[in-house]
Design goal:
There is one protein chain. The chain is α/β, with parallel strands linked by helices. It has one domain: Rossmann fold. The protein is built from 8 helices and 6 strands. The chain has a 6-stranded mixed β-sheet with strand order 1-3-2-4-5-6, sandwiched between helices. Helix 2 packs parallel to helix 5 and helix 5 crosses helix 7. It is globular.
Length: 275
């Protein structure tokens, strides 16, 4: 045993590796247990993850941030009437509330657009609140010129597939869902991006592309926006997403650095702001 008064924590021989990852490795030990400070950190991380799951999305604040950037917005909700139902019934989070569906159909007015962007709370409203507006700000100038973009739809109690029905109602060739991912013990605010060509209800996940872990400690917003813009451009050009569309955005970035050209003008929005 260590003499009384010495540090009771026995450090791990791997302790130096902790500088390279937020993962819980090389925690050391105090006797036969974890050190007290690590137990407290774990409890704090667990509480943060639970808070992220149950916290509601402040739709008004997000809409205001997007309006300040020039994005028009619409609102929608799934058939999950509250958070408890959403967690117990994932299937309801994939279906639009009938009233919301009617409002989106009326807003579309039979028109067609190239791109519909949906921002959903998912399993972490914190992720959508923190990263959706910065991501769209970084994305806007990277999109192809002349792209017809529907108003951004802010959806609550949303699952990934909710964007399929929204995209179909808006007459979109491509749907992009920005969704809060399931919180981890070191990442309560991770945002996922799902891209689906020819969106419609009932599509399998194999027909989507996914960009995950968008947050400062994971994939930074600017890098995520560049990758998303490439996928949007290629999905519309090739008419596919999912397993048929391999993400080669990094290769494209290297090529563009070698042969830089003039920047595309900003794309036009398909509709004015709606309440």
């Amino acid at each position: 045993m260590k003499p009384l008064g010495d540090d009771p924590v026995t450090p791990s021989p791997w302790q130096a590796l902790r500088a390279h990852t937020p993962a819980r490795i090389a925690l050391g030990r105090a006797g036969n247990a974890l050190p007290t400070d690590e137990v407290l950190r774990f409890g704090w991380a667990h509480a943060s993850a639970r808070d992220a799951i149950h916290a509601p999305l402040d739709v008004d604040a997000l809409a205001a941030a997007l309006h300040a950037q020039g994005w028009a917005t619409l609102r929608a909700r799934s058939q999950a009437t509250d958070r408890a139902t959403y967690l117990r019934r994932p299937d309801l989070g994939r279906r639009l509330d009938p009233e919301a569906a009617a409002l989106l159909s009326k807003a579309a007015n039979g028109g067609a657009v190239d791109l519909a962007i949906v921002i959903g709370d998912g399993l972490s409203a914190l992720a959508a609140a923190r990263h959706a507006a910065p991501l769209l700000a970084a994305l806007h100038d990277k999109l192809p010129a002349g792209l017809r973009i529907a108003p951004a739809v802010l959806a609550t109690q949303a699952r990934v597939a909710l964007a399929d029905e929204i995209g179909a109602l808006l007459g979109a060739r491509l749907a992009v869902m920005l969704l809060g991912e399931r919180p981890g013990l070191s990442a309560p605010d991770s945002l996922g991006i799902y891209i689906t060509h020819a969106p419609r209800p009932g599509l399998p996940d194999a027909l989507r592309n996914c960009i995950s872990n968008v947050r400062p400690e994971g994939l930074p917003v600017d890098a995520a926006a560049a990758r998303l813009a490439w996928l949007v451009r290629e999905a519309l050009r090739r008419g596919v997403t999912g397993v048929a569309l391999k993400d080669e955005s990094e290769h494209a970035a290297l090529s563009s650095e070698a042969a830089s050209g003039p920047a595309d003008p900003r794309p036009s929005f398909a509709a004015r702001d709606r309440p």
